[in-house]
Write a structure and sequence with these properties.
about 40% helix; Rossmann fold; three-stranded parallel β-sheet; 8 helices; about 230 residues; about 10% strand; alpha/beta
Length: about 230
Amino acid sequence: MAEMEYWSWPPRYDDTYRPEAGSRYWFRTRETMPAGDRERAIVERLEKVCRYAYEKAPFYQKKWDEAGFHPDQIRSLEDFESKCPVITKADLRKAQERVEPFGDYLCIPESEVFHVHGTSGTTGRPTAFAVGRDDWRNIANAHARIMYGMGIRPADMVFVAAIFSLYMGSWGALAGAERLGCKAFPFGAGAPGMSPFNDLVKSMTAVASLLVPSSTNGRPALSACSARR
C-alpha cells in the first residue's frame, strides 16, 4: 500500500500545504487508492482511534470493558461493526451529568480546550462539545479538502449563510474556507438588522454557499454547499 499524505494519528497537517495547481485531488494517493488498500487503511485508523480513546477517556474504557471489547480486536470492518458497542446520545448526556461540564469522554486535559460548542437541547439536556486546538486545525483541514473536492479553489468566495452560535457546521465551513485560502464571507443567519446588507450580497459573486435547513411555507428549504463551475 502506497504511503498516504499526512496519515498519522493523532492527525498532523502542514497548514501551508495545497495541491499543485490544476490538480483534481487534495490528496491524490488517498483519493485514488484501490478499494482493498482503502479498507485496510480504514481498519488501521479505526484501531488507532479506538486505542487512543480507550487510553485517554475513562468513559470509553469502562463502556468497552463492560461490553468485552478492546481495540486489539479490530482486524476488519466486520470486527468493528460487530464488537464495538454503540454510544448513544443518552450515554453522553449521562456522562456530562456525572462529570460536568464535558463528561469523562474528553481525551485532552480541560486546560487545552480551545472552543466550546454544543447542541440546542431540543430533545433533552444540551450536550457540550469541547474542541482542542489541534482538533480545530483538523476540522479546518477536513473542510478544506471537502471544498476542494467540490471544485472550490483558493481565492473563490464562500458565502456562509448559517448561524454562528453553538452550532458547529457554520464554524467548520468558515474554518475550511479560510484554510483553503478562499474569500470567506461569514454572513450568518437569523441576526436582526441584516436586511440592509442584501444589496451588498447581490453585488458579490460567491462560488459556493453554505445554507441551513429552514421552513418556507411549511416546506423544507434546500441545504447546500455547491460550487458554481
